């Protein structure tokens, strides 16, 4: 894995007598990608489980309108 990147920027205050160097450390692309994929998977799984729970509840209460509406929302989660 590559080392973190460090960017330096020189800030000048007033007439140039006082200056300050600011270092900014960037996270590598691999870490950003892994974090984004993990968050996406967690959100996907939570949304799917929540919809399944709501569908089961609509079946238990014999609410056919809610069932059909929720089943349409659930279609993207079903792999073909």
Polypeptide structure, described:
The chain has 80 residues and is of the alpha+beta class. 54% of the residues lie in helices and 22% in strands. It is built from 2 helices and 2 strands. It has a two-stranded antiparallel ribbon with strand order 1-2. A hairpin with a 4-residue loop joins strand 1 (5-13) and strand 2. Helix 1 packs antiparallel against helix 2 (64-74). The longest helix is centred in the middle third of the chain and has 32 residues, at 29-60. The mean pLDDT is 83.
The average pLDDT score comes to: 83
SSE run: EEHH
Which parts are unreliable, with pLDDT below 50 for 5 consecutive residues or more? none
Total helical elements: 2
SS-derived structural category: alpha+beta
Rg from Cα: 25 Å
What gross morphology would you assign? elongated
Strand order of the largest sheet: 1-2
Q: N- to C-terminal separation?
A: 36 Å
Number of strands: 2
Major sheet attributes = 2 strands, antiparallel
Into which percent range does the helicity of residues fall?
40-55%
Range of strand content? 15-25%
Give a brief rundown of this model.
The chain is of the alpha+beta class and 80 residues long. Helix content is 54%, strand content 22%. The chain contains 2 helices and 2 strands.
Could you outline the blueprint of secondary structure elements for this entry?
Blueprint: E1 5-13, E2 18-26, H1 29-60, H2 64-74
Antiparallel strand pairs: 1-2
Helix pairs in contact: 1-2
């Amino acid at each position: 894995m590559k080392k973190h990147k460090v960017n330096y920027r020189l800030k000048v205050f007033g007439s140039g007598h006082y200056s300050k160097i600011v270092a900014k450390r960037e996270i590598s692309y691999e870490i950003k990608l892994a974090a984004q994929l993990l968050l996406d998977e967690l959100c996907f799984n939570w949304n799917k489980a929540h919809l399944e729970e709501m569908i089961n509840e609509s079946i238990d209460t014999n609410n056919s309108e809610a069932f059909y509406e929720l089943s349409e929302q659930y279609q993207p989660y079903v792999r073909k």
